[in-house]
Amino acid sequence: MKMCKKVLLIDDDSDEHLLFQDALEMYDNSISCIAADSYTKAINLIKDETPDCIFLDFNMPLFNGLNSLQKIKQTTSLSNIPVYMYSISDISDKVKDAALELGAVQWLKKPCYMKDFRRIFSDVLG
């Protein structure tokens, strides 16, 4: 797996953006993070800088994670970028399977603590 240097986080919770970015900086401050609260805003933010991987929250209003994943995989500049779905809530196997069929690489339980982020980053980011 290639080393990830730029992460796109799509999550509707701005507090999650701060927690994720702080944890990422503590893990490896050479990895940059672009955070957006929706697929649409993410597309506008990354016009000139394609991320190496995407963390996508499942529970979002309007366009949930599956809808956003489908849009990501239909977007030429993003279609081959690994997408890691995550959620704080328990997700049914049916929904997880649907996400994997749509092209998600993996489902992750959204961490609550910094140490849990470190484990996820170590596994996912290389």
> How does the major sheet shape up?
5 strands, parallel
Silhouette: globular
Residue windows where pLDDT falls under 50 for at least 5 positions: none
Number of strands: 5
Give the averaged pLDDT, no decimals. 89
Q: Biggest sheet, strands in spatial order?
A: 2-1-3-4-5
Radius of gyration in whole Å, from Cα?
Answer: 13 Å
CATH homolog superfamily: Response regulator
Order of helices and strands: EHEHEHEHEH
State the secondary-structure class.
alpha/beta
Please bin the fraction of helical residues: 40-55%
Describe the structure.
Helix 1 crosses helix 5 and helix 3 packs parallel to helix 4. The chain has a single domain, classed as Rossmann fold, CATH 3.40.50. The chain has helices at residues 14-27, 39-45, 65-74, 93-102, 114-125, and strands spanning 6-10, 32-36, 53-57, 83-87, 106-109. The chain is globular. It is α/β, with parallel strands linked by helices and 126 residues long. Helix 3 links the parallel strand 3 (53-57) and strand 4. It starts with 5 loop residues before the first strand and ends with a helix. The mean pLDDT is 89. A 5-stranded parallel β-sheet has the order 2-1-3-4-5, with helices on both faces. The chain contains 5 helices and 5 strands; from the N terminus they run E-H-E-H-E-H-E-H-E-H.
